[in-house]
Amino acid sequence: MKKAAIYARVSTGKQAAGELSLPDQKRQCQNFAETKGYEIAAEFVDAGVSARTDKRPEFQRMINLACAAHRTFDAILVHSQSRFARNTKDLLIYKEKLEANGVQILSITQDLGEGETADVLRTMVGALDEYQSKETAKHVARSMIENARQGYWNGAQAPFGYRTYAAETRGARIKKKIEIEPQEAETVRLIFRLYVFGDGGSGPLGVKQIATKLNARGLRVRSGRPFRVQFVDTVLRNTAYIGEHYFNRNDSRRGKQRPREEWIRFPMPRIVEDSLFYTAQEKLDRQHPLKTPPRIVRSDVLLTAVAKCGECGAPMRKLSGKSGTYHYYRCSKKYECGKAACTGVSVPMAELDEIVVGALEDTILKPNRLRKMTEALVSRASERNEAFAARRSLLDGERRQARRQVSELYRLVGTGEMSMDATLSAHVKGLQDKVETLNRQIAHLDRERSLPVESIGAEVVEGFGRAVSAALRHPDNRAFARAYVQALISDVTVSDSEVRISGPKAALLHQTAMFAAKGELVPSFAREWRTRRDSNPWPLPSEGNALSS
User: Fold this and answer.
1) What is the pTM of this model?
2) Considering only CA atoms, which of 223, 221, 222 is closest in space to residue 211?
3) Which of 167, 287, 300, 342 has CB 3.0 to 4.6 Å from 177, enough for a Cys bridge?
4) How many angstroms separate the CA atoms of 247 and 268, rounded?
5) Is 329 within 8 Å of 347 (Cβ atoms)?
């Protein structure tokens, strides 16, 4: 007796409940098998999967078994050819592959016979199925886009921090809207705070450290699983948390992002303030592996990415000697290319670290020096605020203009007055990148303006100096010390005769104001306490010279 396998498939829940339901397909195939004298040897079912692609688990398992050396069936029964494939290319490829292995595809509702005429008809039916599928997809996409434009949430699961609710019913359809899920939203805020500020006992945390901390607290993602690095990274990059979600952004079939002009902006309830979000984006950009090597991002070496060779300007790299007993900073160019490339010095790591920490303590963090510097900066606070306000007004005007230009270009494309060619697409992307840059600059200004500069008194200044000194000297928290060194210092240039330290003045005021606002140390980045020309030279201990200026 001949043996056959049944393949059944539906692509949506609506189909599963209708005449193309999986049980109905299987029942009709079983009846056909009895009539034609086939014994059912296997059943393969793909539920909720489109036939426009061959990426279907049960479909591939069936093909593999059909082409195996010891196959268990001679034919594959389907309700209609469209259940097997809605892509003409896939239909022809798999039909040829199966027939080469002695396996037929039999459509129980489309008996086209055998021979060349049947092959032509089968190809025509496949092409019509593909066309119908594409037209249906277009109709569904148009409906979903209009649904999003009206402020209704399309079927996908809401991002972490949000939930859907039934807003109204239209016939058999439930229209959903989005709202904040309080507990998840608080976790989202915590992720951003830990990434930008830390937990008070450390510097800003990395993505992996945040996942570890959340899991240690017993927090879980919506599925009940532990937090993972990729999940935390996705949260930090998601613009939905500042009220900007986009529908129709990705083409799931091609695995690519659609052109920006096809995105539909969907307003979301805000969970995170712009200033916090864009500060996180700046840090993500700085720590991107294509911009900053992971060894620098994760390093607890105090002067990583700060110390530079005075001869060639290359970064100083940590090197170890005598099986890790001794550690040095050495010019990376000299290390990689030899003495012919650079004659820069090697400095014991502990020695250079002590010079830099000592310079901060003696020149900046002593109460009387720190008071004088911050008083001078605070005295110009009103001037500073006026400059910030003027700068923000200018940036805001530029942003409005760029947004209007983008909207107008989209309108012209939509009405057919312009076509979206490569040149126009590049121009639109440039405008969108400009808007993103302006968003960050405005958020940075707002953050600076909100800091309580006027409340920085003698008590705050002295407390800040003591706290930073303690952090820099703490033997068990090098990451926190490194965060503060990088927040206060822009360059440590090392040569044979001196160590030149420079940093931006604004950074000092920023860090002190952060301390005043939070009541604890929160290293964050705002450059400029001392210009490079105004920096003090610090002789190496081996030179035996006193501090000079």
Assistant:
1) 0.50
2) 221
3) 167
4) 12
5) yes
Gap between the terminal Cα atoms of the chain = 100
In angstroms, the CA 258 to CA 176 distance is 25
Amino acid at 546: A
DSSP state of 106: E
User: Residue range 292-315: average pLDDT?
Assistant: 71
Q: What is the CATH number of domain 2-136?
A: 3.40.50.1390
DSSP 158: P
CATH topology of domain 193-291: Hect, E3 ligase catalytic domain fold (3.90.1750)
Token pair 């050819």 in the structure block, residue: 81
Confidence of residue 231 (pLDDT cuts 50, 70, 90): very high
The 3-state DSSP composition of the chain as helix, strand, coil percent (nearest 5) reads 50, 15, 30
Q: Are 374 and 456 in contact (CB under 8 A)?
A: yes
pLDDT, tens digit, 9 for 90 and up, residues 14-53: 444 444 678 888 888 999 998 888 999 999 998 877 767 7
Task: pLDDT band for 536, please (50, 70, 90 cuts).
Answer: very low
In a 10 Å sphere around its CB, with 0-12 CB exposed, 13-18 middle and 19+ buried, how is residue 533 labelled?
Answer: exposed
